[in-house]
Design a protein that fits this description.
Length: 116
């Protein structure tokens, strides 16, 4: 792409994506959203499990609780909200670090505090 470069990269959760898409829709009321943006917004409205503020807070808590947990994995945990150790094992199947049963229970307990 000519004239564009990536300045920084962040992983965001589905609720944070929903917030960004709603903001973009409100800022550009005169223009219709592109098809991809509309489909993405519909997806986020259907599958968001927590508010954007809760997602940011939860991501911060997860990353503070486990030093091996990066922003990408924290966002994935928040998006999927696993309910048991088996679900967590599936998420971490191809990762370098597989959480122990105790760590997985801590993750589930923290997620349960935000589960609706």
């Amino acid at each position: 792409m000519i004239g564009r470069k990536k300045i920084e990269e962040h992983y965001i959760t589905v609720p944070e994506t929903k917030e960004l898409l709603h903001k973009r829709k409100e800022d550009n009321k005169d223009e219709e959203m592109f098809y991809e943006a509309r489909v993405s917004l519909e997806y986020t409205e259907r599958f968001t499990k927590v508010t954007p503020e809760q997602a940011k807070e939860l991501k911060k808590k997860l990353m503070e609780l486990f030093e091996w947990l990066d922003e990408r994995l924290a966002a994935k945990l928040i998006d999927l909200m696993p309910k048991d150790y088996f679900d967590i094992r599936v998420i971490f199947a191809k990762e370098e670090h597989l959480p122990t049963k105790e760590e997985a229970e801590q993750i589930i307990q923290l997620l349960n505090e935000y589960r609706t």
